[in-house]
UniProtKB/TrEMBL annotation:
Function, in words: Part of a sulfur-relay system.
Organism from which the protein derives: Pseudomonas luteola
Annotated InterPro entries: DsrC-like_C, DsrC-like_dom_sf, DsrC-like_N, DsrC/TusE
PANTHER family noted in UniProt: SULFURTRANSFERASE TUSE
UniProt GO BP: tRNA wobble position uridine thiolation
Entry protein name: Sulfurtransferase
Classification lineage: Bacteria, Pseudomonadati, Pseudomonadota, Gammaproteobacteria, Pseudomonadales
Family: Belongs to the dsrC/tusE family.
Residues at the active site: C103 (cysteine persulfide intermediate)
Length: 104
């Protein structure tokens, strides 16, 4: 395993450290192999962060994905299946973003 500069919950301390390889390492630590479907969400999430400077909680994440990738991907069932029941938190972590502020 690669040494990563992360906080106690596994989120990157420096967003500039993120790369495809870092995302793969973070996913490996979560026991989650990344598929093209995961990458689609992760890239959309990084676009969201670039535009709004925050990591979305579940509802805004679902709405944004529905708007950008379509309703078949922007729904809670699809995202929960991809990201083990906590899509906003886990996707933000893998995308190298801060933990969404209103997620426990």
């Amino acid at each position: 395993m690669t040494a990563l500069n992360v906080d106690k919950e596994g989120y990157l301390l420096d967003l500039g450290d993120w790369s495809v390889e870092i995302a793969e390492e973070l996913a490996l630590r979560e026991g989650l192999p990344l598929t093209p479907e995961h990458w689609e969400i992760l890239h959309a999430l990084r676009d969201f962060y670039a535009e709004f400077q925050l990591s979305p909680a579940n509802r805004p994440l679902i709405k944004y994905i529905a708007q950008t990738l379509g309703p078949e991907k922007g729904n809670s069932l699809h995202l929960n299946l991809l990201f083990k029941g906590s899509p906003a938190k886990l996707a933000a972590k893998l995308a190298g973003l801060p933990k969404p502020t209103n997620c426990l």
